[in-house]
Amino acid sequence: MGVKFNDKVLIDKLTIIEKTQIPFAANQSLKRLGHLIKTQLLPAEMQRSFTAPGGAGRPVPFTLNALLHDTKNMRLTLSLKKEASKGTSPAEYLYSAFYGGEVTMTPLTSAIKGITNMYGVPAYGNLSKLGALTQRLDIKRSYASAIVSGLSKKSSKQSQSGERFIYVKEGRDGLRGPTVVRMKGSSVSTIMNLVNSKPKVDVALEYKKFIDKTAEERLPSLLSLELQRAMASR
Q1: Whole-angstrom Cα distance, residue 151 to residue 164?
Q2: Is the pTM above the cut of 0.90?
Q3: 191, 48, 199, 182: which is closest to 119 by C-alpha?
Q4: What does the alpha-carbon distance between residue 229 and residue 234 come to, in Å, rounded to a whole number?
Q5: CA 14, CA 20: separation in Å to the nearest integer?
Q6: Are 10 and 223 contacting, i.e. CB atoms less than 8 angstroms apart?
Q7: Sign of the CA dihedral running 63, 64, 67, 68
Q8: Helix crossing, 107-116 with 141-152: angle to 10°?
Q9: Residue ranges per domain, the chain?
Q10: pLDDT range class, residue 59, cuts 50, 70, 90
Q11: CA neighbours within 13 Å on the CB side: how many for 94?
Q12: Distance between CA 90 and CA 80 in Å, rounded?
């Protein structure tokens, strides 16, 4: 999305000399606004608005630094990083947080959909107790791989770690289903609840509304400051 500078609102209040400085001052003020949103304002809003499932945790630097900004021709363009060194990119996993709707599928939930023909909803409380979550409160890649590998095996033979991952259908073996469980010895933990419809989430942070409001509140004072600097350097 973008923020475009509208000089028509202010142009009648400026002197002829000041008007000549508008393009430069506008670009500078938009650059400063983009930097401010990226480094301070959006991260602070994320800290207020985002929690991990179950109300635990806060966004980590990878999420807080997801915004990119660029200014050209009196227009500030804001975007989210599309590259992901591991797993899902910020542009993908923040989409549902900013706009709501269907959750973003991960490699693990996609694999589970392929195996069970159902959508997986992680049981974060149990996964946390099992040490299966990263600092970002994502499921660790090694653990996700173990789950998929375990579910893909035709036999129920346990792994070297003693863990087994089993797809439990409704009413099977006295366990509630449909679900994916982790078994080790006598311990049984639900790690993924299964549903027929793709899960949906509410908007956690109204991104567009936040950007529009921030620009409306901050841009006039930033422009005034940049005009003063431009005039002082003449």
Answers
A1: 8
A2: no
A3: 199
A4: 9
A5: 10
A6: yes
A7: negative
A8: 10
A9: 2-100+202-232, 104-195
A10: confident
A11: 26
A12: 6
